[in-house]
Amino acid sequence: MNPSFWDSTKVLVTGGAGFLGKQLMPRLLELGADVFVPRSEEFDLRKESDVKNLFKKFEPEIVIHMAVHGGGIGYMQKHPARIYYDNILINTYVVNYSMESGVKKFVGIGTVCEYPKYAPAPFKEEDLWSGYPEETNAPYGHSKRMLLVQSQAYRKEYGFNGIHLLLVNLYGPYDNFHPEHSHVIPALIEKMFNAKLRGENAVEVWGTGKASREFLYTEDAAEGILLAAERYNKPDPINIGTGKEITIKELVSLIAELVEYDGRIAWDETKPDGQPRRCLDVSKAKNEFGFEARTSLREGLEKTIDWYKNEILGIKRT
Questions:
Q1: CB of 84 within 8 A of CB of 140?
Q2: Is the pLDDT at 200 greater than 70, yes or no?
Q3: Counting beta carbons within 10 angstroms of the beta carbon of residue 50, is it exposed (0 to 12), middle (13 to 18) or buried (19 or more)?
Q4: 37: phi > 0 → left, psi -120 to 50 → alpha, else beta; which?
Q5: How far is CA 315 from CA 2, 195, 305, in A?
Q6: pLDDT tens digits, residue range 52-89?
Q7: Active-site residues: which are they?
Q8: Structure confidence at residue 120 as a pLDDT band (50, 70, 90)
């Protein structure tokens, strides 16, 4: 990392209060950046007037745009319209006022959900537009695709220096463990601990367990974002991940082992698996700006489970 790039630089981080922001913010402050995180009670990013006032107030030089409306498969199925609408508004206004304010760098945080359902794995950036996203999260994926399209269009017409990072599924401390909104890892941790505490002998898991996913620890994700902000200036989207996949069945077994849950796993095969495979080709990130994930899935899960036990359950390590 290059401290001189960040020293006294005004950095606006939308969505910086979320669990990825909990890893990103300390790094930015250590590097000497002047950081501002807008809170929704003061700045509703779905409202153009609020976004305009935000940029007028802070006058950022760099924008890291992480604000998003999303959730797990169940939440995506219940609220596809709201997710699409909110994200389109948020992205449109934030990119536009980044351009109008003359920011020198815009870092748009995209998602693996942008990839086509049947893209050949590992996913390569050039395959992004080769098909339709997986149906359960297509509205979310399309809203993120439009963030890329807008950034590229603004680069072509206005010389806007916007980049787009395609992040895989994230996990780590401070994640959302709400049963309706959470993604697969926090949902499994929550379910298994609850089953142990209540003396229940089974945990229900959606799907068949055959689908595969790739998971990136938030500390590594923060490093990837910062390196890209410093060193990457091209219009093409770029993958940020580990390049390693695991089936949901294997993931469930690993979390059960780490949580010390020995009950039964009840697979609800009437529920969707989602995309059959998710795994990124991460070679471009390594070649373009030297990013490689450092944290193994087991190590990251151990850290996440320790945080959950300490902060959510109040179980102090002796």
A1: yes
A2: yes
A3: middle
A4: beta
A5: 38, 16, 11
A6: 999 999 999 999 999 999 887 788 889 999 999 999 99
A7: 140
A8: very high
Phi, then psi, of 99 in degrees rounded to 5? -65, -50
Give the CATH number of domain 3-174+214-243+279-295; options: 2.130.10.10, 3.90.79.10, 1.25.40.20, 3.40.50.720.
3.40.50.720
User: Residue 227 is which amino acid?
Assistant: L
Tokens of 135: 């149906």
